[in-house]
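Chain A, query sequence.
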Amino acid sequence: MRRKGARRVSVDSGAAGGNPLSGMNPIRQNARVLTAALTGTAVEFYDFYVFATATALVFGALFFPASSPEAQGVQAFMVFGIAFLARPIGAVAFGHFGDRVGRKATLVASLLLMGGSTLLVAFLPGYASAGFVAPLLLCLLRFGQGFGLGGEWGGAALLAVENAPKGWESRFGAAPQLGAPVGFLAANGLFLVLGMNLSDADFLSWGWRVPFLASIVLVAIGLWVRLNLSETPAFREALAHRPPPAVPLGTLLRHHWGAVLAGSAGVVACFALFYLSTAFALDLGTRQLGYGREQFLLLQLGANFFLALGIVLAATLADRFGAARVLLVGALCTIVVGLLFGPGLQSGSAQAVFATLSLALFTMGFVYGPLGGWLAGLYPVEVRYSGVSVAFNAGGILGGAVTPLLAKQMTNIGMGGSIGLLLSAAGILTFVGVSLARSAR
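Chain A, predicted structure.
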C-alpha cells in the first residue's frame, strides 16, 4: 500500500534526545506546543457544539418554514450535516498547504476561517424576516465552518505528535482530543447558564446568539498561542532531505490509498458516539422524552467528564500497549454500548440516561484518545497532514453526519429503541479499519 522506498520520518524525530532540557517532564517541556494543540481543538469543538446545540434547540423553528416540528428538526440536522461534507474538502485544501508550507501557517488559517464562520452565525436573520435567504446563509456559514475545521484536527494532532519524545506519541497526540471535552464544557455550560437565566422567548429571540459571539474569545486565545510557535521538527527534517511533493493528495492516493481507507473507517466510531450522545440525544431528550432543556444539558455536562477520563486513560494505555490495540478494545466496547444506548435513553429515568451518556462518552475516549498517534503513524511526513486530515474527515461524514440524521429519522417513525444499532455498526467499521491498517502500513 505504500510506495517502495518512500522515506518515513518517525513521528518522534524531534524528540528530546540531545536536548539539554531532556531531563524535564516532557509535558512541561512542551507545554506551549500542547497548549496550542489543545486550544485549537477546544475552539473546534466549541464551534461545532454551539452549532449542534442550537440545531437541537432553536434552528428548526428559526430558519425553516412553519411545518411540523419533526420536519423542521430533520431540516436543521441536514444543515448540521453540511459541515461534514465540507470537512473533507477543507482537509484536501489545508492538507495540501500543511504538507507543502508547514503545520503552523496552515493551522492559523484554519482557525481564522472556522472562528469567523461561527461568529457570523450570531448575526443571521431568521426565516420570518428573510425568507429562504435565512437557511441559505446558515448553510453557507456551516460550509465555511466545516471547511476550516477540515484542516484543524489533523494539523493540531501533528503539532503534538511530531514534537513528542519517543514513547509519548499517544499521550502527546491526546492533547487535541482533550480539546473536545473542554470545548463541549464551554459550549454546554454557556447554553445551560443562558437557559437558566432567560425566558424561552428571550432565548429564542437573542439568547442563542450569545455563544456564537463568545467564540471570538477562544479564537483570540488560540491565535495568540499558535502565532508564537515554530515549525515541527519532523517537518523541518523532511524538508532538509527533499522538497515536498507538488500535489501531496496525488501522492497520498497513489501510494497510500489503503491507509486512507483504513484510517477513515477507523475514526467512524468516535464521531458516531459523540454526536449521538450530544446533539442527537439533546434533541431526543427535550423534544420527545419530556426532559427539560436545562435538566438534559446538566446531564450531558456531567457525562462530559467521563469523556476526558476515557481520553487520558486510553492515551496512557496506548503508549504502553500500542494505539491499535486500545482502539480495537474501544471498537468492541462501542458495539456493546450500541446495544444499551437506545433502551438507556428511553428508560424514563434521568439516572439511567446519565449512566448511558457517561458510558458512551467514556467509550468514545478509547476510540478517540489514541487517534492522533495512530493516524500519524500511517503516513510518511511528506503526505502526513493530507493523510491524517482526509482520513479523519472522510470518516466523519458517516459517523458525524449520516449517523445522527438516520437516528433522527428512526425516532420519527417509532424506532427509537433501535438507534443504538447505528453505534454497533460504527464500532464494527472501526474495528475493521484498525485491523486492516496493520496490513496497510
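The chain has 20 helices and no strands. The chain has one domain: 28-440.
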